[in-house]
Please model this.
Amino acid sequence: MESCSTCLLGKKGYIFKRGSYQNYILSKPFTIYFLSLFIFFLQDKLKPQNNITSEFQLKCNISRRLAESEGNINDQNLGETISHLELMSIWNNDEVFEERKLNDTLMNLLEHLHKEAPTYNIDEHGKNELWSSILRDVNKCVAILKHNISTRLNDLVISGSCTREESKKFLDFAAHLWGNLRYTTEREFWNRLNRSRRSNSGLFS
Model:
């Protein structure tokens, strides 16, 4: 997803699901509050529908999910075709799993931010600014990602069903987009953290 790979550019005005996090001060109490809200979002997502540190790990996770998705399809004995509703059900479960992994990535990055901020000479205001920019851009990418996946799914099952091979390709496509988002989020976080250190280091340091 090229657009999602390049959207972490500091845009503003986006809301991550139901809450705006632009004004959070990342002290420990607010951190706990933020994480509680994030977990609540995931729990709410589950009601209606029942960490990546390198590119190598990203590919391994994607491969594992593809194998699991293929197993789901085969285990259900769907034959040569799969209906729109059946594929949607499989993808809804996979999407919940992908959102949990994104949540884990964000929580790990937030922990790194608190841990590394003193070393990088970043104060509370700086932490808040950096983290808010990351969340705004993740939100934008999630919206683009979900739109692209939904469009691809609707095009695939426009006749009401698709072949099993086509459904596997779709699940491959969707898992790749989510994995790329997590990888890009991690990479952009560290890039921005390094830029913050350079900007706070002073002219002669």
Observations:
- The first helix runs from residue 2 to 5.
